[in-house]
Amino acid sequence: MTEGCDYSWARPDPVCLFNHGMRFAARYTSIGSSGKNMTRAEVHRLIQAKILDGAASVLGWSAVGVYGGLLAIEKLVPHSAMWGWQTYAWSGGRWSDKAHIQQYKNHQDRCGGLVDLDRTNPDREITDYGQWGLGEIPDPELGGFSMADIDVILKKLELMRVGDESGTFNTHDFASLEGISLKVDSARDDVDWLMRAVKTIATATGATLPPHD
Length: 213
What we know:
This protein is an alpha/beta fold. It folds into 2 domains: about 130 residues, TIM Barrel, CATH 3.20.20.80; about 70 residues. Strands 3-2-1-7-6-5-4 form a 7-stranded mixed β-sheet. The termini are far apart.
């Protein structure tokens, strides 16, 4: 179980929150100038303190989260939204198995401000609850690679398919035999590294690779 907090008008110190065992902070964001909204500077301070923000955007199902009581979580997760954040209020003492995060206590004085206490669902093994920064964490289910690693792999594969980032091979790459040799050696190294990476991920996820020479 992972402990975190959420707050609206308060601005507790992120380092202090981290030292008190908080590992994520759920915050407000909206169009307009409400004092509840997080700022760019606040996001920077939270990330530097290694607190992962669990606030979801509205860009697609996988980035949409629902906050509410038992009925809201049961009705909307996962059909209408991927993430569920349940509050003890309006829940009648019952927790939904669908909730990723539980808000279990309000108005606690922490680090210079009033915050609500949250935790990941203690009945589930949850490491991904919609937070920012997760892509940098190695995932055993991906063969020890992180999603950031996967992005690098995909980019390398795409560049090998189309050439450089402009989508073509530049003429200076082939201006000399030495240039061609360097390009081939680099490509061979990339292929070897990519094959090892793909095989590791396939083994970890149980995927079947197509036959190759």
